[in-house]
């Protein structure tokens, strides 16, 4: 009995080792082929079982009559061009390789069977266990494939299922967002950008950073306020609910790898691509008071590309009007991949609806137009600014009828803060001259102030704890540096610089 058990155990070991080794090697090989060299660098693209086995787990499970235990193949999904698709393929590779092995052994089994019992009895004694091992190999490989497809973490089935579901349930997708340090933020920033970030941080792996180098492309002559502006901006981010536990927050200039990648991308970016960039021409025309004919300003899109792809970001949130700007980044990425291999995923636009936020003078809300209502404005100041905000210019007197659709105040504040009932009341009151503009504005001011209250409370707490911002930026820098360094290792390898 004991002898039979020992015999069976010994016969089981080679098929188990082979099944596990092929399974793990298939994961590693497919990951490598899809652009992630992590497993390859750690020696996991090999049929040497020792590299894949967890010896203690294997022994424990072997004696209980179960399969051995393999160390999970290390994968860095950021290296994949199409993250979800690649994770599905890598996860399927293990179970499929086992099914393939099972099919091969089944063919061998059938051949032995077809040869008949005489053939088996004529085999040398030492070869006889081979038939039993073939039989065991079929069972073990099929069982390993089926077991791994159960959708329970950490089995392969859960990764396949997780990445076939919509993004919310999928593995983290790298995302990137930046903001130039212009100081305190206003309602335009909040509704145009930060409200979107709050949603994104729940759904994606996000990198939010203060683009201080970008600020220098236009404000190189006057960098004195940048440091204070960074602080104010990060306080505003945190005050509205950007959570450092969910998103990586840092300062662009703290990660020197952005600059290194910028230099390398500069080598391959054709000058005409930059010169014909419509934003470049528009800004040179619009900002006459500054000399923007600099190398840095022309190369802004190259730095922007480096910011995006260094985190292997595959989604970049942009409003519809900015979508063409990302096209240049995609072209530069394609050119890099063409010369040096598929190192970077091509960043895709994540179109976001950006509500219209107009300033007190009816133009787009902007600090430079001096028409902004800031998130840090005290309630009395918010009220004062709203009460003096421009309305429908056709409504000069209380008795004149107006049109809410031509009223900057309505388009911004009622649209953002009023419910349907109030909006209907305003529409009727304005178009029939039943209400005055002050009455109309006062119906929404308390809602705006109430929405700002928790934001301003958080701001106060953060201002009282100056070390907190430094700590958050330094934590974010550590995390971002790790990712950026890893990417740069691949970039240097791909370019033959390592
Ligand atoms: Fe604008 Fe309201 Fe005045 Fe109409 S009543 S013009 S919607 S502020």
Question: Can you put this structure into words, describing what you see?
Answer:
By secondary structure, the chain is mainly alpha-helical. It has three domains: 163 residues, no CATH class; 215 residues, 3-Layer(aba) Sandwich (Rossmann fold); 87 residues, Tyrosyl-Transfer RNA Synthetase, CATH 1.10.240.10. The protein is built from 21 helices and five strands. Helix 4 packs antiparallel against helix 5, helix 10 crosses helix 14 and helix 14 packs across helix 15. About 2% of the residues have low confidence. The site of iron/sulfur cluster (SF4) has 14 residues, from helix 17, helix 18 and helix 19.
Q: How much strand? A: 5-15%
Strand order of the largest sheet: 1-2-3
Number of helices: 21
CATH topology of the largest domain: Rossmann fold
**Ligand types:** iron/sulfur cluster
Q: Any low-confidence stretches, pLDDT <50, length ≥5?
A: 166-176
Q: CATH architecture of the largest domain, please?
A: 3-Layer(aba) Sandwich
End-to-end separation: 60 Å
The first-level CATH class name of the largest domain: Alpha Beta
Radius of gyration: 31 Å
The helix fraction, in percent, is: 55-70%
Largest sheet: 3 strands, parallel
Gross morphology is: elongated
Question: Structural class, judged by helices and strands?
Answer: mainly alpha
Mean pLDDT: 86
Task: Work out the number of β strands.
Answer: 5
Count of separate structural domains: 3
What is the name of the CATH superfamily of the largest domain?
HUPs
């Amino acid at each position: 009995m004991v002898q039979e058990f020992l015999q069976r155990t010994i016969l089981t070991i080679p098929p188990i080792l082979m099944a596990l080794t092929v399974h793990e090697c298939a994961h590693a090989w497919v990951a490598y082929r899809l652009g992630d060299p992590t497993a390859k660098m750690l020696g996991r693209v090999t049929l040497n079982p020792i590299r894949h086995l967890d010896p203690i787990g294997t022994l424990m499970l072997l004696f209980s009559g179960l399969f051995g235990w393999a160390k999970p193949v290390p994968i860095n999904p950021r290296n994949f061009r199409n993250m979800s698709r690649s994770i599905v393929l890598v996860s399927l590779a293990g179970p499929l390789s086992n099914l393939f092995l099972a099919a091969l052994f089944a063919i061998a089994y059938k051949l032995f069977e077809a040869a008949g019992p005489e053939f088996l009895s004529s085999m040398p004694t030492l070869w006889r266990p081979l038939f039993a091992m073939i039989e065991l190999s079929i069972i073990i490989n099929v069982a390993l494939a089926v077991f791994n497809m159960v959708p329970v973490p950490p089995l392969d089935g859960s990764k396949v299922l997780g990445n076939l579901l919509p993004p919310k349930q999928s593995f983290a997708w790298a995302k990137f967002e930046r903001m130039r340090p212009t100081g305190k933020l206003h309602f335009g920033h909040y509704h145009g950008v930060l409200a979107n970030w709050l949603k994104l941080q729940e759904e994606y792996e996000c990198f939010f950073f203060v683009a201080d180098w970008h600020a220098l492309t236009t404000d190189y002559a006057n960098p004195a306020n940048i440091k204070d502006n960074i602080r104010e901006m990060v306080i505003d981010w945190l005050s509205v609910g950007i959570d450092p536990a969910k998103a990586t927050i840092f300062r662009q200039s703290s990660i020197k790898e952005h600059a290194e990648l910028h230099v390398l991308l500069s080598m391959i970016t054709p000058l005409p691509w930059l010169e014909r960039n419509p934003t470049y021409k528009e800004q040179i025309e619009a900002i006459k008071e500054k000399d923007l004919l600099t190398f840095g300003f022309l190369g802004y899109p190259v730095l922007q590309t480096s910011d995006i792809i260094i985190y292997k970001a595959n989604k970049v949130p942009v409003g519809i009007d900015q979508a063409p700007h990302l096209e240049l980044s995609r072209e530069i990425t394609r050119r890099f991949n063409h010369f040096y291999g598929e190192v970077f995923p091509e960043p895709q636009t994540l179109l976001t609806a950006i509500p219209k936020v107009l300033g007190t003078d009816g133009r787009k809300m902007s600090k430079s137009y001096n028409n902004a209502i800031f998130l840090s404005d005290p309630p009395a100041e918010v009220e004062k600014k709203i009460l003096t905000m421009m309305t429908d210019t056709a409504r000069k007197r209380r008795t004149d009828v107006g049109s809410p659709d031509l009223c900057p105040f309505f388009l911004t504040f009622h649209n953002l803060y009023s419910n349907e009932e109030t909006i209907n009341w305003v529409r009727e009151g304005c178009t029939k001259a039943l209400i005055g503009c002050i009455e109309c504005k006062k119906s929404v001011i308390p809602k705006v102030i109430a929405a700002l209250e928790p934001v301003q409370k958080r701001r106060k707490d953060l201002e009282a704890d100056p070390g907190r911002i430094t700590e958050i930026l330094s934590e974010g820098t550590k995390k971002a540096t790790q990712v950026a360094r890893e990417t740069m290792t691949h970039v240097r390898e791909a370019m033959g610089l390592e």
